[in-house]
Amino acid sequence: MNDNHNRNHNRDSRPLFEVRGVSYSYGGRVLALDNVSLNIWPGERVAILGSNGSGKSTLLKLLDGLYFPSQGEVCAFGRPLSEATFEDEGFAFDFRRRVSLIFQDADVQLFSPTVWDEVAFAPLQLGLARDEVTARTQAALSALDITRLRERTPYQLSGGEKRKVAIASALSLGPEVWLMDEPTTSLDPRSQSWLVDFIIQEGEVGHTVVTATQDLSIVPDIADRVLVFSEDHRLVAEGTPSAILADRDLLLRCNLIHEHRHRHPGLEHTHLHAHSGDHAHE
Ligand SMILES: Nc1ncnc2c1ncn2[C@@H]1O[C@H](COP(=O)(O)OP(=O)(O)O)[C@@H](O)[C@H]1O
Ligand SMILES: [Mg+2]
């Protein structure tokens, strides 16, 4: 399946995102990314793996132009992202229409009085006709199976429901680049599987999907290429899902799987465990 998706990459063109020698620290003190360089190509599906605090969310916010590098440069669509670039309203509007970040914490993303308003917001901003706004809003609510929540207040919803509303509001915008921050966390099994199918479909239509995750079980389905971040905020490996997932030493070193002792009657041995997903013994 991954080979099929690979054909969608367009490596003849310029990368969609170019990250060159980027370091980022919060308040000039807390290092979150250390000298990271990477490219993301149009139509690629990339998984960003790393344990808690490795810098995944920070990277996605840099790609989304919410933060700017302390050192180095992030380019998107051939333009360096900076405060000055976003002062160009044409660029800012175009960028926000094409790129959607689904935050790890949906709370910071939701601001409307009702779920309907939240999901209708982007198509309204695009200046679409009323019928088109209604159609897109209904379609997005229905895709996420949250039509019944349409009159509810987003901030009163459960974590998983909030995440679905956040995804539906991006879906109604119809971006070509998705930045997803641990999107399966707190979703029920049906929604998780919808999300994985959705990422596959987005890849099939040539859209770009960058997913930060610690859920190794979904990686083969959601990515053509995997980037691995270490606990000291460096990009330490890059490869196909099968190559990365087979590299047990790397996954152990980066705290993406852990080894622990089990005591069974008359027997003591060690197992490797993924942090999430299916916890099968090997
Ligand atoms: N708003 C913030 N202020 C200070 N430090 C932060 C902030 N957000 C994240 N960090 C720190 O930056 C590092 C990277 O965080 P983050 O990008 O959220 O990692 P991940 O998403 O991989 O868990 C961590 O050490 C984290 O504690
Ligand atoms: Mg994070």
Commentary on this structure:
The protein has 11 helices and 12 strands. With 282 residues, the protein is an alpha/beta fold. It has a 6-stranded mixed β-sheet with strand order 6-7-8-3-9-10, with helices on both faces. A 4-stranded antiparallel β-sheet has the order 2-1-4-5, with helices on one face. The chain has a two-stranded antiparallel ribbon with strand order 11-12. Helix 5 packs across helix 6. The protein is globular, with a radius of gyration of 20 Å. Residues 1-7 and 276-282 have low confidence and may be disordered. Residues 26, 30, 32, 50, 52-58 line the site of adenosine-5'-diphosphate (ADP).
In short, what is this structure?
With 282 residues, the chain is of the alpha/beta class. 35% of the residues lie in helices and 27% in strands. The chain has one domain (43-66, 83-274): 3-Layer(aba) Sandwich (Rossmann fold).
Key terms:
Rossmann fold; six-stranded mixed sheet; 282 residues; binds magnesium ion; alpha/beta
Rough outline: globular
Our estimate of the beta-strand percent is 25-35%
Strand adjacency order, main sheet: 6-7-8-3-9-10
State the helical fraction.
25-40%
Question: Do you know the CATH architecture?
Answer: 3-Layer(aba) Sandwich
Strand count: 12
Helix and strand composition category:
alpha/beta
Helix and strand run: HEEEHEEHHEHHHEHEHEEHHEE
Low-confidence stretches: 1-7, 276-282
